Write a sequence for this structure.
């Protein structure tokens, strides 16, 4: 039996946009009115998405981590694509806010020689 966990949901208020869901594990529909949209993976190991922000039905940003780096993905209304993240070492992003489609800020953490520190990327 596969375990599925809803990690994050984002909805653009006032728009005809269905809630977007990010799953850990093998993806499948959670409710009869939802559908699963595939997303790309980065690296060769684990990929996790933990935060999402949607400005419109054709612009969402999701953040998380892969292997040992931050993962950022963008939704264009049809499909997800990976957005290059700044190289910040062993890091991950947990939340994102986008006041517009031209500016987003994400927060998370970074391992700095064994010491966990905050990380902010814009």
């Amino acid at each position: 039996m596969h375990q599925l966990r809803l990690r994050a949901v984002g909805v653009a208020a006032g728009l005809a946009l269905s809630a977007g869901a990010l799953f850990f594990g093998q993806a499948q529909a959670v409710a009869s009115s939802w559908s699963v949209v595939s997303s790309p993976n980065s690296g060769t190991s684990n990929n996790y998405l933990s935060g999402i922000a949607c400005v419109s039905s054709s612009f969402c940003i999701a953040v998380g981590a892969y292997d040992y780096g931050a993962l950022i993905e963008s939704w264009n209304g049809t499909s997800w694509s990976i957005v290059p993240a700044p190289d910040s070492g062993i890091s991950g992003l947990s939340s994102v806010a986008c006041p517009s489609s031209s500016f987003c800020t994400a927060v998370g953490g970074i391992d700095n020689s064994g010491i966990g520190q905050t990380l902010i990327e814009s």
Observations:
- DSSP finds no helices and nine strands in the chain.
- The CA atoms of residues 51 and 82 lie 14 Å apart.
